[in-house]
Amino acid sequence: MNRMARLTGFLFLFVILAAGFGNDANAQLGRQQGLVEPNIATEPQLAALPHMNAALVKGILDRRPFLSMTDLNTFLSASLSKDQLKDLYGKMFLHINLNTAKAEEIMLIPGMTARMTHEFEEYRPYKSLDQFRREIGKYVDAKEVARLEQYVFIPINLNTATDQEIMSIPGMSARMTREFKEYRPYENIQKFRREIGKYVNAKEVARLERYVTL
């Protein structure tokens, strides 16, 4: 009986771990550690962040979606010091595209150096987060790779992405995942804008478009 119980427990653990690894393999957004995403955060979530005040919260809500982290930084840097921004970006950040982000945008990640920014750029194009982990893991330990990963994403291919990949987009729902797939194949990004624009407004289409490619 004890042997059977141990075997059952082992098999259950194996299934859970295997499922977790499968999700990580298919995700195109780095595994998160509690970062607030400013384009979808609620007003209370924004207000609870370091150095945020009512005016900054309202400014983010009124201006979003921000289409790059540099755009968000331009807005915030008018009111916050570099040290305050560093504190804030440890809690809130707009994920950057590993394949297209400029050096100035990568450097906004807290603790980022010019050397590591160069390493981020050196291994482009990134096809998967496993590639990012492997290459950046040549320079920093696993804990630092995991910290950096939460700041980045790799765009999903509109015509081939799995449900898990589509669902990794922040704020994505199961219903919208079905809509993404319904209009395949996408011949161009204009078709994406037109079809998805049937379900959400232009601002939300622009926010979603950050995470996709053809």
If you had to describe this structure to a student in words, what would you say it looks like?
With 214 residues, this protein is mainly alpha-helical. It has two domains: 43-153, no CATH class; 156-213, DNA polymerase, domain 1, CATH 1.10.150. The protein is 54% helix and 4% strand. It has 13 helices and four strands. The strands form two sheets. It has a two-stranded parallel ribbon. Strands 3-4 form a two-stranded parallel ribbon. Helix 8 (129-136) packs across helix 9 (142-149) and helix 12 (189-196) packs across helix 13. The termini are far apart. Mean pLDDT is 90; it is low at 4-23.
Task: Kindly estimate the percentage of residues that lie in beta strands according to DSSP.
Answer: under 5%
Strand tally is 4
Q: Going across the major beta sheet, what is the strand order?
A: 1-2
Give the CA-CA distance, first to last residue: 55 Å
Whole-angstrom Rg: 19 Å
Helix/strand/pairing category: mainly alpha
Order of helices and strands: HHHHHEHHHHEEHHHHE
Helix content: 40-55%
Number of helices: 13
Low-confidence stretches: 4-23
The total domain count is 2
Shape: globular
Describe the biggest sheet?
Answer: 2 strands, parallel
Mean pLDDT: 90
In short:
The protein is mainly α and 214 residues long. 54% of the residues lie in helices and 4% in strands. It has two domains: 43-153, no CATH class; 156-213, DNA polymerase, domain 1 (Orthogonal Bundle).
Summarize this structure as a short list of keywords or feature phrases:
single chain, 214 residues, mainly alpha, DNA polymerase, domain 1, 2 domains, two-stranded parallel sheet, 13 helices, 4% strand, globular
